[in-house]
Amino acid sequence: MGNILIVAICVLIFLPRHTLVWRWVVGTLVGIDCTLNCFLLLGDYRETISGRLGKAYLRGVKWVVPIYWAVNILFLPVERKLNHCIRSIDPTVGDKTIWRWGK
To answer: What is the pTM of this model?
Structure first.
């Protein structure tokens, strides 16, 4: 599993965007992200962990701030911006969340 993750990260960093392989890797990683959010964090199955972190950060939930910045820094080589969680917010999802973070 570790080798697959390393290959996926290399594809995201080094391959040109919008190629078939790049889109497949991104789609696969988003699917894994939504699955983990659903089963481990009791979130909406359509929402990513980054989107939930962005929403909680904007609502002022204090305990998500270090995780929020760690995820933003993690995605910095891929997106070249430090606002990944805010850009991942989808206002149309999240209504099926069981464990709500914060207020």
So the answer is: 0.79
